[in-house]
C-alpha cells in the first residue's frame, strides 16, 4: 500500500512552488551557453571549438567536487585530467595548432561556456537527486518546460521576422526531424544518467561516445585512423581503468 | 678495517672469469641493435623512427617485470602505458601518420630493436646489482671493454678500407669530440642509474629529458610549442605522479 502511494506521489505533475522554482536555473544557463556558441565562432573555427569543448570535462569535474561535495580520489582526479587530455589528443589534426592562436576573448568565452555547462550539469544532478522518489520523466517535464519558455523568448527577440514571414517550421527536412528526435532521446537519457548515476559518468560516456563515433566513421565514411586518435584512445582507456581502480574505499 | 677491505675489494680490476663472463652479453645486444639502426631507415624516415623508439618503453617494462621479477603495481602499469603514449603524443607532427604506413619489415625490425634494447637494459641492471659492493666504475670498465672489442670487429668488417686510407680519426671535429664526451658521461650516468636505481627510473628520466630538451629548444632555436607537445607533457606528468602514487605497499 505504501509502495503504491509513493509511486502515485512520484508521477503527479502538480507540485509545490518550492520544488518547481529550481528548474528554470539550468534551462537559463544552457540558454546562455547555447547563445554564446554563436558568438564564439567569431574567434575560433569549428575544429578549434571542438578542442576547446574539452574544457567542459575539467569544469564539470571541478564543480562536481565543489558543489556536490562528493570526493573524487587522487587517482580519480588524475584519471579525469587524462580523460580531458586523451579526448583532445584523439581530436588532433594537422590544423589543430591554430587553436593556440585563439585571441583572449575566444579563450574567455570558451572558459565561460565550460563553466556554464559544468554548472548547469552539476545543478541538474542536484535537482534530479534531491527527490529520489520523484519520477524522472516528471522532473524532465519541468526541466524542459522552462527550456521551451526561454527559447521561445530567444526566438521572439532574435528571429521574430523570419518566423513571421516564413513560418516556424520553414526549412525543416527529414534530417532536421531526425536530429530533433535524436536530441529529445538523448535529453531523456542524460536526465536518467543524472538521476541514477552522476556527472562523472556522463562525462566518461560522452567521451567514449565521441571515440566510438570516430571508429564508426572509419567504416561508414572511410575516415583514416590517425596516430593521434589511436594515442588519445589509449589514454582515455587507461583513464577509465584508473577511474574504476581509484574508487575511494567505502 | 672491514670497511676498508670492502672498499679495496670492490675497486680491484682483476676478477674471476665467473664474473666477467656476463659482461659481453649487453655489449653484443647493443651492437646488434645499433647495427639494425642503419638498416631500419630503409623502411622508416627519421621522425617515424623517433616515434617507433617509444616501443622501447613498453619492452623495457615487460622485460623488467619478467626477468627481474620485480612487481609493478597495476597503477604503475597504467602509468607505464601512459608514459609511452604521452611521449609519442609529444613527438607528433603533421607528418607523423606516415609511420602507420611502415611496411611489415619495418615494424618487425622496430620490435626486435625494442626487445634487444629492453633486454640489454634489464640484463645490465641485473649485472650491476648482482655485486652491490663492486665499484660502479669497475663494472662500467668491463661493460665498455667488451663494447670496444665488438665495435672494433664491426669496424674491421664494415669500414676497414676507409679507416686504412683516411685514418681512424678522419672527420673528427670539435662537435664530434663533444658528442663522444657527452655519450661517455651519459654512459657513466646510466650505469649509476642501473646500479642505484633501476630501468624504470631510467625510462622515466629519459622521457623527462626528451620533454626538457624540447622546452629548451623553444628558447634556443625558436621551436613552436605544439598542442600535441602540451598534451603529451600533461600525460607524462600524470604518469610520473601515478607511478609514485601506485607504489606497492612494502
Kindly list the characteristics that best describe this protein:
homodimer, 250 residues, mainly alpha, pyrimidine nucleotide-sugar transmembrane transporter activity (chains A, B), disordered N terminus, transmembrane helix (chains A, B)
What would a concise description of this structure say?
With 250 residues, chain A is mostly helical. Chain A has eleven helices and no strands.
Description:
2 copies of one chain form a homodimer. With 250 residues, chain A is mainly α. Chain A has helices at 2-11, 17-20, 24-40, 46-52, 55-68, 74-90, 104-130, 136-166, 174-196, 199-221, 227-245. Helices cover 77% and strands 0% of the residues of chain A. The model of chain A is unreliable at 1-9 (pLDDT under 50). The first copy, chain A, has one domain (22-246). The first copy, chain A, contains 11 helices and no strands. The A-B interface holds A 51, 74-75, 78, 81-82, 85-86, 88-89, 92, 94, 96-97, 99-100, 224-228, 231-232, 234-235, 238, 241-242, 245 and B 51, 74-75, 78, 81-82, 85-86, 88-89, 92, 94, 96-97, 99-100, 224-228, 231-232, 234-235, 238, 241-242, 245.
